[in-house]
Amino acid sequence: MSAAEAARLDAAVAESWKLPPLVLMENAALRAWAALESRAGRAGFAGEAPIVALAGGGNNGGDALALLRQARFAGRVALAAVVAATRIGDLTALQLASLLAAGVPVWFWNSEAKDGLGDQAREAPIDRAAIKALLTSAGLIVDGLAGTGLRGELSGPPAELAALAAAAARPIAAIDVPSGLSDAARRHFPVLPARWTLSIEPRKTALYRPAFREAVGDIIAVEGVFPRDVSLHPQAVLLEAEDLSRFAPRPSPSAHKAERGRVALFAGSEGASGAAIIATRAASAAGAGLVCLYAPEPLYSRFAADASPLGAALVREEERFFSGSQPASALADTALADAVLAGPGWGFESRVQPAPSEHRVSLLARLLPIAPPLVLDAGALRLLSRLGPEAVKTARAGRPLVLTPHPGEFASLLGRSAAELLADPEPSLCEVSRAYGAVLVLKASVTWIADPEGRLAIYDGREPSLATAGSGDALAGVVTALLAAGLPPFEAACAAVIAHGCAGKAARAELGWYDAFALLKVLARLFEGATR
Hints:
Blueprint: H1 3-16, H2 21-37, H3 40-43, E1 51-55, H4 59-73, E2 79-83, H5 90-101, E3 106-108, H6 119-123, H7 128-137, E4 140-144, H8 156-168, E5 172-175, E6 196-200, H9 213-216, E7 218-222, E8 237-239, H10 244-247, E9 262-266, H11 273-285, E10 290-295, H12 299-305, E11 313-316, H13 317-321, H14 328-336, E12 339-342, H15 356-370, E13 374-376, H16 379-387, H17 389-396, E14 401-403, H18 407-414, H19 418-423, H20 425-436, E15 439-442, E16 447-450, E17 456-459, H21 471-484, H22 489-511, H23 516-530
Parallel strand pairs: 1-2, 1-4, 2-3, 4-5, 5-6, 6-7, 8-17, 9-10, 9-12, 10-11, 12-13, 13-14, 14-15
Antiparallel strand pairs: 15-16, 16-17
C-alpha cells in the first residue's frame, strides 16, 4: 500500500473497532519485538551490548519506544533511547514517559524535543559525545526517527542523529520504513540504511523502489496488527515464488507442438548472435512447441551452416519482410505464430544493411499492425521513440503488447534519467503503460510490472547472478512463450518474471556464477515442475 492508503487503513480500523490509536501502537510494538527477538541469536544482538532506540516526534518514534519497553518486559536490561525532534506527539510522549518512569536511560539530541514534557524529561541529559559513544557500542539500533508520514527530505535534528547512527556502523532495525524513505522520497534524499526493516503489514510500496531497496535490508513481516478480514485496496501486489504454479499454463497430456504455442522471433545482428540464440532457447524452455527465428544476414548464413546451437526453425528475414512493397508473406507467417518477439541483439548495427537503423525502424513498423501478441525488448525499445506512443498504440489497435526495458531503455522512452525513475517508478511506469497501451516490465534488482488499466505487480528479486549478458534476452523469450500459450499479457509478464528470478536463484545455488546459456536449462526444469 501507499503511505496514504496505510494511514486510511489505520484510521478505519481504529474507528470500526472503537480502538484508541495507542492500542494499535502497542499491538504493533509487541509483534515487532517478537519478530525481531526471534532473530536475536543468529543476528548477533543477543548479548550484553545495549539496544538503542532512536525516536523522532511522530508515531514512528512512539513505535520504537514501545518496542524498547517490550524488550524490557522480555527481560532485556541493556536498553537506552535517544530522542531527536522539534516537537513530540502525544503518543510518543506517552511512550517516553513510560520508559522514564521505568528507569530506562533516555538522552535528548536537542533541547526543543523536551518542550511540553514532564520533569523527568527535562532532567534527561543532552550529551552528544555520550550519544555517539552509546551508538558505537550498541548491539542493535532501532530506527524510529521518521516514518511513512514524512513529507519531504529528512532534516533537522532527526537527520543529524541519523547521520551519526549511520556512521556508527552498527546493525539497524527500522520500524516500518528506514528513516528518510516515504512516498515523497526522491533520488537525492538521504535514507538511514537498515539491516532489517520491520514491515507492519500490509507492506509499503516505497520499500520496493529499486533506488532505495538496498537501504531497506531484509524485510521482516510484522503480521497480526490489523484484522485479517479487513478490506484492502492495495496499490500493488507482491509476487512470490509460490505464485508461479498459479500462473503457469498446463498443457494437456495429449498436446501437440502447435497447441503448446508457436513463437516467432526477430533477433540478433552481426556481433550479437548470442542474443538470438538465448531468446530462442528460452522460448522453448518456457514450453513453446514451435519456435522460428527470422534472422538477418549474415546470421542466417551462419545459423544455416550450423543450426545445432539454435534449436528452432530458421527463416531469412529479408526474404519475408523486404522482398516487395506488400508484406503478404509476412502476414501469412505472423498469422501462423501465436506470439512474436522483436529486439534482442538489435543493439549492434549490421554492416550488410546500408542504413541499419532505418531497416530496423521499417521492420518494427511492419510488425506492429500485423503481429499477434507482441513483445518488444532491447534494440526494439530504443526505436519506439522514433515512432511515438500514439502511432504505436494506433498500429496495435488493441492487440496485446509487452515492453521489457531495463532502466536505461525505460529512461529513453521518457527522456528522463534512469536514477530518477528508479527512485519512484510507479508514476512513470503507469504513464508509459497507458501511452503505449502496453504491459510494461521494468527490469531491475526489484522488477515492477504495470498494465494500462493501472494494475501493478512487484517482484523483489535481488539476485545479482542474473546481472549477466543475455539474461534479459532469456526473460523476453519466456514472456513470449507464455503469451503464445494463451496467458493474458499481465499474467504472462508476472509468470515470466517469477520464473526468471527463481531460475536465477536456483542456478546460483547449483552453479555459482553462470552465463545466460546455463540459466536456460534451469528455466526448463523449473517450468516442467511448475506445469505438472
